[in-house]
Amino acid sequence: MTNKERRQFPRYTVPGKTIAITPHNLGQVLDISLDGCAIKYIGEDTLLNSNDYIDILMKEAKNKGFYLEKIPINMVWENSPDFSAFSTIVVKKVGMKFKELSAIQQQELQIFIENYGIAEA
After folding, report:
1. Beta bridge partners of 14
2. What is the residue-level pLDDT of the chain in tens, covering all 121 positions?
3. Which residues, 6+ apart, have CB-to-CB distance to 112 below 8 Å?
4. Which of 18, 40, 81, 119 is 20–30 Å from 91 (CA)?
5. At 56, is the secondary structure helix, strand, or coil?
6. β-sheet bridge partners, residue 12
């Protein structure tokens, strides 16, 4: 049985210093596309609620960087972390789909992917 790819847009890995800020926590963006992203974060609580948004921030040298605020999202999946007897740190991953973006948000997201997207994830 083969898994059918459900994504409409390709995903791209992003620099490790790309951060997602939520109303409840912050995490590292692992990959991104025009319609969603995956984030990892430390904590046992859920990263997002149903009507939350994220801000994406990436800082470069020489005062360059990227900041896109208030991206409306829906959480699509959240992994169940592996617990280790040797660690008290819980790292979780979540996948999210962007809700309707404004024309400016769509344009900024496209610019971010073109300038910082590393390779298809």
Report:
1. none
2. 444 456 678 999 998 889 999 888 889 999 999 999 999 988 777 666 666 899 999 987 666 789 999 999 988 888 876 666 666 777 888 899 999 999 999 999 999 999 889 877 5
3. 32, 56, 58, 66, 68
4. 119
5. strand
6. 32, 120
